[in-house]
Design goal:
With about 450 residues, the chain is an alpha/beta fold. It has a domain at about 20-155 and about 320-375: Periplasmic binding protein-like II (D-Maltodextrin-Binding Protein, domain 2). It is built from 17 helices and 14 strands. The chain has helices at about 60-70, 85-95, 110-115, 135-140, 165-170, 180-190, 205-215, 235-250, 260-270, 280-290, 330-340, 345-355, 365, 370, 385-395, 405-420, 425-445, and strands spanning about 50, 75, 100-105, 145, 145-150, 150-165, 195-200, 220, 230, 255, 275-280, 300-305, 315-325, 445-449. InterPro entries: Bact_solute-bd_prot1, SBP. Keywords: Signal. This is Extracellular solute-binding protein.
Length: about 450
């Protein structure tokens, strides 16, 4: 699941500190056998690999792995979900000690650690053997050229969740384009209905995905040339997307609330929002937050994400995590085996999708009859995997992230706040965002084009 960064990581940067990682084995040779395991070790004689991860069903996943292996055991601990874990990892990178052997990271955070040589290229350790298990887009998200820095587990192909009661009451059909979305929003408001959606400042990853869907390419970056980056945030596509959502908010057609809050969830339950632009993991998140369990039970459905250009559909992603091997791993080959094997067995993947903990990226699951034809309870029995999420995942082409995703998200969030407050336009926000990120990149030693 997606966790929104709370602060900017202390990457003092990267270009100056990148020599602190790599394959330096000075710590690895003397690494003590990890003992602070949350889980039970099945084979005490086997070497252990320390794993940091926060999946809700991780205890079961680790037990499944350990029971199936006699040559290695996972010693698992939850070092925090998302940002808290990243901060601890950054501290360990700077100190050159204290990192786990294997770490769970979100796809959009990988490059920021890759550039510090904090992650191991898994290609020499057999990553290519599992490439066939994933779509091209999922694999692109964890790769740089021929190098592979993590093994995907779950993803977030995006779609449009909507309330069937609201749509039925006002005679609305799921919009196929964002133009139709705006028209439907205006119709519902004119008839005295709820706001149609929400433009939350604290979900900059969503806005970025919609920018990419419109045709924007915010960043071009390749680790082969660490000091060079292309930044393009003042393009017409970015301006159009920020203007579109800013106008909807200014007209009162969508809300301005931060998401993942108690008030927002209460609004979802109470029918305040007719739609929720979100990802395939959203049903699990909403169910866990109490949405769809009371008076709103059976009132949700999902449709394909509206398109900017119906003739040229683009699938985009929000969230998703993977397992990476850190440069401080005591045994990189054994750690790579864990990264490729943990949360990859049938029992763990089945538990993950049935409990709505993950949307699996493993093609073995995506093509299984049970998953394809599953009737999703949150969507009142709709076959959402087959009809919506699997096609979206398979159409996803991957994205290119910057080495400073957290800083970029923070600046985009600040610009959205200004848009919502009527202090700037979408076009001006894009220009200001571009200038801020370019200036930051230059201060960190990048050559920007």
């Amino acid at each position: 699941m997606r966790k929104i960064p709370a602060a900017v990581l202390g990457l003092t940067l990267v270009l100056a500190t990148s020599a602190c990682g790599g394959d330096d084995k000075s710590d690895a040779g003397t690494a003590a056998k990890p003992t602070n395991c949350t889980n039970k070790i099945v084979n005490e004689a086997a070497p252990r690999v320390l794993v940091w991860a926060w999946y809700p069903n991780m205890a079961k996943v680790v037990d499944n792995f350990n029971q199936q292996h006699t040559d290695v055991q996972v010693c698992w601990t939850n070092a925090g979900q998302g940002q808290p874990e990243y901060e601890k990892f950054q501290t360990a990178i700077s100190a050159r000690k204290g990192a786990p052997d294997v770490i769970m990271l979100e796809a959009d955070q990988l490059v920021g650690f890759e550039i510090q040589d904090a992650l191991v290229d898994l290609a020499p350790y057999g990553a290519g053997d599992v490439k066939k298990n994933f779509s091209d887009g999922a694999w692109k998200d964890v790769s740089q050229g021929n190098a592979v820095y993590a093994i995907p587990v779950d993803g977030g192909p995006m779609a449009l969740i909507y309330r069937t009661d609201v749509f039925d009451k006002y005679g609305i059909k799921p919009p196929k384009t964002w133009s139709e979305y705006a028209d439907a929003a205006a119709r519902v408001k004119a008839a005295g209905g709820p706001v149609f959606g929400d433009f939350g400042s604290n979900v900059p990853a969503v806005t970025t995905a919609l920018m990419i869907q419109k045709g924007a390419q915010p960043f071009v970056y390749d680790l082969a040339d660490k000091q060079k980056i292309t930044i393009k945030l003042d393009d017409q596509a970015t301006k159009d997307v920020l203007t579109y959502w800013g106008d909807l908010a200014a007209k009162g057609l969508v809300g301005k609330e931060d998401q993942f809050t108690t008030d927002y969830i209460a609004g979802m339950v109470g029918g305040k929002y007719a739609t929720y632009v979100s990802a395939a993991w959203a049903p699990g998140y909403l169910t866990g937050s109490g949405v769809g369990a009371g008076k709103d039970k059976g009132k949700f459905a999902v449709a394909p994400l509206p398109q900017w250009d119906a003739a040229n559909p683009v699938s985009v992603n929000w969230g998703g995590s993977a397992f990476a091997v850190t440069s401080q791993a005591a045994d990189k080959a054994l750690s790579a085996k864990v990264a490729m094997g943990i949360y990859a067995d049938e029992a763990s993947l089945t538990d993950g999708w049935k409990t709505q903990t993950i949307f699996p990226l493993n093609q073995g699951v995506l093509k299984s009859d049970e998953f394809v034809n599953a009737k999703v309870g949150f969507f009142n029995g709709q076959t959402a995997n087959k009809d919506i999420y699997i096609p979206a995942e398979n159409a996803y082409k991957g994205a290119v992230y910057s080495p400073f995703t957290v800083f970029y998200y923070a600046q985009l969030q600040a610009q959205i706040v200004k848009i919502l407050g009527g202090k700037t336009t979408g076009a001006q926000a894009a220009t200001d965002l571009h200038n801020q990120v370019v200036e930051y990149a230059k201060t960190q030693g990048f050559t920007v084009s």
